[in-house]
Amino acid sequence: MPHDTPLIATIVAGLGLAFVFGALANRFRIPPLVGYLVAGVLVGPNTPGFVADAGLANELAEIGVILLMFGVGLHFSLKDLLSVRAIAVPGAIVQIGFATALGAGLAWMLGWSMGAGLVFGLALSVASTVVLLRALQERRLIESERGRIAVGWLIVEDLAMVLALVLLPALAGVLGGQEQTDAHASGLLSLPASYGIWGVVGITLAKVAAFVVVMLVVGRRVIPWILHYVAHTGSRELFRLAVLAIALGVAFGAAKLFGVSLALGAFFAGMIMSESELSHRAAEESLPLRDAFSVLFFVSVGMLFDPFSLISNGWPILATLAIIVIGKSLAAFVIVIAFGHPLATALMISASLAQIGEFSFILAELGVGLKLLPEQGRDLILAGAILSIVLNPLMFLAIDWMKPWLETRAARTAPPVEAKPVGPATEPGQVASVVATTNGEDGPPPRTSLTNHAILIGYGRVGSLVGASLKEATLPFLVIEDADKTLARLKADGIETVSGNAANAEVFAAANPEGAKRLILAIPNAFEAGQIVMRARAANPGINVIARAHSDAEVEHLKGLGADTVIMGEREIARGIVEEVFGQKPMLRPEAGEPSAA
Ligand code: AMP
C-alpha cells in the first residue's frame, strides 16, 4: 500500500467480510448478525491474519448507535415517550436492581471485591441499543405499543448508565478501586470526587435536565427553522446534509457539553425533527447510512472476542450468560405482567432486553481502568455480550414457541389476558371486525373466513382510496396493514383487517390467499411487494395481482415475479396533469405505455 489507511482498511474489511458472512449465515437460515460477529472475530486481534483497528471500529460503531437512535427518535413523539413512563421507569429500575444483585452475587462467588461486583452487575443489567432496535425493526414493532415500552425502557436504562458512568470515577476510592485520575476523565463527563455522591448525582441530573430543556425550548425552534431554510434552497443534497449534521451535532454536543450519552442526544434530535411532516419524510430518506454503521457495530463487538476464553472461563461464562438471558428476562417478564400488560407484551419485552452490548463494554473498560474490576470480569462481560447477542434471535423464536403454552396455562389459572397489542390509538370500546391484532411475532394470526375476496395491502395514501371504492361497491375485501395509526383508522372505518407485515408468511396466509380472487398491492416498496407477489402466485396461481410501482425498473421487477398489472405512480400523475392541461383524456405516446400493457 502506498500509504497507511487504517480507517479505509477497517471500513472495507468490516463491511466486506460482514457481507460475505452475513450472506452465508442467511444461506443457512441463521440471522445475518451472527455472520457480522464472525467477521469481527476474523478481523480481530485474537485470530491470525489481517487485524483491523479496534479503536476506529469502535468509533464507527458509535456512529451506528447515533444514527439508530436518531431514527427511533424520528418515530417517537414526546407524548409517546410520556405515555409509557408508568411501566418503563419502574421496569427499568427494578430490572437493573435485580440484574445488578445477581451479577454481584456471581462476583462474590468468584472472590471479587464489592466494587467489582457492583460494576459487573451494572454492566450485565443494561441492554444494547443496537441489538434491541434491530430486533424491533426486523419485526416492525417500533411503532407498536410494545415497541414504545421497549424503547422507553431502554431510554431509562441509558439514563441510569449515564449516571453510573459519571458516578463510578467519583466513587472508585470508596469502592476499593483507584481514585479517579485524569486518564479516565473524559471532557465534562467527569466531576471531582470532592462534590460527594449527592453533589455528583445532583449535578449530573441537572445537566441532563438542562439538555432536555435546551432541546425543547431552543432546539424545537432552531432545528425546524434550519430545515425549512434549507428546504427553500431547493437542494436535496444540502437538505440531507443538514439532517445528518443536526443528528450528529446534537448527539456529540449532548455528550460533550451535557454529559448525556450520544444515543440519547441523537434520540432527542430525531424526536424534534419528527414534529414537522416535511423534515420527517426527508430525514427518513437519509437513513440508509444507519444500516451500514450498525453492521460495523456488530463487527466491532466481534473484534473484541477471544474464542479461546470460552475454554479457560467455562462455568463463569455460563453463569454470566444465565444472568443475562434468564435472570433479566424473568425480572422483566414479572414486572410487565405485574403492571397488567398482556402476555405477548411481557414476552416481547423480556426477549428484547435479554442481551447486553455497548454500554456494558464502556462500563467494563472504565471498571478495569479504575482498578475496580479484574480483567477476568471484562472477559466475562465480553463473552456474555457476544453469546447473548447471538442467542437473541433465538429468544424471539422461543417466545413464539412458548406463548401458546403459557396462554393455555394462564387461561386455566387466571382470567384471560386481554389481547390488546394495537396500541393506545385504538379506542377500547370500539367494535370492529379486526381479525388479527398481531405484528407477526406472536404466533399466527387467525385466518379470515372471507372467500372470493380481494386482499388489499397497505392503507396509506393509495390503499385508503382503493379501499373506499371497494367498500362503496360492496365488494368483499380485507386489508393487511402494519402501522398502528393506520390500523386505528381501519378499525374506525369498520374494515376487516389483518395486522402485521404482509411480507411475513403467517400474516399473509391469514388473509386466505388461496381462496382470494384478487391481490392489490398498495405499498411503495417494490422489493417487499415482489416477495408478496411470489408468495401469492405460489399459493394461488389463478389470483389476479395488481401492484404499485414508482419506476420502470420496478414495473419490470414486479411483472417478472408474476404481477398481472402494475400501475406506475408517476405515470398516473403525468396523466392527471395532462388531463388538467388539455381538459380531456390524454393521448399518452406509446412508449410512455398504457399502465396495464403486458
Ligand atoms: P402510502 O405510501 O401513503 O400509500 O402508504 C403505504 C401504506 O402501506 C402505509 O400505511 C404502510 O404502513 C403500509 N405498508 C407498507 N409496507 C407494508 C407491509 N409490508 N405490510 C403491511 N403494510 C405495509
TrEMBL record:
Transmembrane regions: 6-26, 33-51, 63-82, 89-110, 116-137, 149-175, 195-218, 239-272, 292-311, 318-340, 346-368, 380-399
Keyword annotations of the record: Membrane, Transmembrane, Transmembrane helix, Transport
Cell compartment(s), UniProt: Membrane
Chain ranges of the RCK N-terminal domain: 451-568
A Pfam match: Na_H_Exchanger
Top-level division of the source organism's lineage: Bacteria
GO biological process: potassium ion transport; proton transmembrane transport
Gene3D superfamilies: 1.20.1530.20, NAD(P)-binding Rossmann-like Domain
GO cellular component: membrane
Major subcellular site: membrane
Cited InterPro entries: Cation/H_exchanger_TM, Na+/solute_symporter_sf, NAD(P)-bd_dom_sf, RCK_N
Membrane association type: Multi-pass membrane protein
GO MF term list: antiporter activity
Family to which this protein belongs: Belongs to the monovalent cation:proton antiporter 2 (CPA2) transporter (TC 2.A.37) family.
Protein name as catalogued: Kef-type potassium/proton antiporter, CPA2 family
